[in-house]
TrEMBL record:
Superkingdom of origin organism: Eukaryota
Record's keyword terms, sorted: FAD, Flavoprotein, Oxidoreductase
Cell membrane is among the record's keywords: no
Pfam families for this protein: FAD_binding_3
FAD-binding domain sequence ranges: 7-351
Protein name: FAD-binding domain-containing protein
């Protein structure tokens, strides 16, 4: 059985970027359909932090208060510690600083965004629907989606199709668009959700551990005792990075127990997930009436939270362009502007800064050690840089839709000169 389906916009992928894009479009009165391969929202450990430039977009969308209510506001700052948890540098936010981050797990944000989207009455969200293929017409896109629950097919038509379907994006592959960049081949990245009363020991909502082996990040993922630990374990090329073996799990748990204070036998583990991490960018974000955003367009390591930040800011710019074209009869050139500006943001800002963030934690090369020393020396001279740059989170330099005047493009040039780690691959990539 084949079902016909027509809406002005179709979004493939119901992650945070897809749902936020759809929400912004639907709030403008444009009908949108979101197709998700999974049967439910992804519950695996993923991003947890939402920074001021993203919070500004949430405010425009009318969901900021809901996000703040659901999450935990980090107004305290962050710390850097060594591999024995000794303090290297405490960065405490001024009491009157208006900028803060909200700590909230990605699944909880997705639920919040989904609820807001459905309340617009301009959206349908269909789970267990997998994109099979697409074809571009003169000024529209035809696509075929398999309804896996009912074993039937949807034949859809839309003016614009948006691919927010992650690193293995079917949309991107259908376009023949490649990912340029490299993979951190020597690392198996592991994210761990856990419950522990860490705040009772006076620890801030975010801590970075600097050590060639026991490096990592511990960050809150919501109210109460919800925390996330992210770290990396050296792996052999023969190991399956998509699966966690018992030895790796033991290494990660032992590391966390050694880094945290108190009776760590009381840690309650909830979920562990392995990742292969990349620094990659799609060669094109727009191919006629199909557009890419979020992980479908770019991939970077998660240290510093810039991947989700960049993706949500993609959504803000893309939705603005689609609204101009569909409601104001603007030239489709505004979508080309989206594609070019957002690609430049990733290549020139997100990619180099996130690379530096990771190397700062674990690299042993003399060049990176010198950069690390310079970084901490700069932190000790707060007159030179804003709090955002000090914390390694210059997120307003990632936005192309902000009304804020603050810009850190000139201020960050000192630490975004990146040398690719020796022996790590550089090639066109397609999973």
């Amino acid at each position: 059985m084949v079902t016909k389906w027509t809406t002005p916009v179709a979004v493939i992928g119901a992650g945070p970027v897809g749902l936020f894009t759809a929400l912004l479009i639907a709030q403008a009165g444009i009908k949108v359909t979101v197709f998700e391969t999974g049967s439910n929202l992804d519950r695996s450990p993923r991003a947890v932090a939402y920074f001021p430039a993203v919070l500004e977009e949430f405010s425009k969308a009318g969901i900021l208060e809901a996000v703040k209510e659901a999450g935990d506001n980090n107004t305290e700052g962050c710390d850097w510690r060594d591999g024995k948890a000794n303090m290297l540098f405490p960065l405490t936010a001024p009491p009157d600083d208006p900028n803060f981050a909200v700590c909230l797990s990605q699944p909880e944000f997705c639920k919040l965004a989904l609820d807001a989207l459905l309340k617009t009455d301009n959206a349908d969200v269909l789970s267990s629907h997998h994109l099979q293929r697409l074809e571009q017409r003169d000024d529209s896109v035809s696509y075929w989606v398999q309804d896996q629950a009912n074993s039937c097919e949807i034949e859809g038509t839309c003016r614009y199709l948006v691919g927010t379907d992650g690193a293995r994006s079917t949309v991107r592959k259908s376009l023949g668009v490649k990912l340029e960049g490299y993979t951190w081949d020597s690392l198996q990245f592991v994210a761990v959700n856990f419950q522990y009363a860490l705040s009772d020991f006076g620890w801030k909502p975010a801590t970075f551990f600097v050590d060639p082996i026991d490096w990592g990040i511990v960050v809150k993922r919501g109210k109460g005792t919800k925390w996330r630990f992210a770290t990396g374990v050296q792996k052999e090329h023969t190991q399956n990075a998509a699966a966690l073996d018992e030895a790796t799990i033991a290494v990660v748990k032992d590391r966390l127990c050694r880094l945290l204070p108190g009776d760590t036998s009381k840690i309650e583990y909830e979920a562990l997930a392995p990742y292969t991490i990349h620094q990659r960018c799609a060669t094109h974000y727009r191919v006629r009436n199909v557009l890419l955003a979020g992980d479908a367009a770019h991939l970077n390591n998660p240290v510093g939270g810039l991947g989700l930040t960049t993706g949500l800011l993609d959504a803000a710019h893309l939705a603005d362009g689609l609204k101009q074209v569909l409601l104001e009869a603007a030239s489709p050139d505004v979508l080309t502007e989206y594609a070019e500006k957002r690609r430049a943001i990733f290549r020139d800002v997100t990619d180099p800064i996130s690379t530096e963030n990771l190397l700062r934690l674990m690299s042993t090369s003399p060049t990176d050690i010198k950069k690390r020393e310079d970084f901490f020396a700069t932190l000790r001279n707060p007159k030179e840089f804003s709090l955002k740059v000090q914390a390694g989170l210059p997120d307003f330099s990632l936005t192309t839709t902000s009304s804020a005047k603050f810009s850190v493009h000139q201020e960050i040039t000192w630490f975004i000169s990146v040398t690719k780690p020796d022996g790590w691959t550089t090639e066109i990539f397609e999973q």
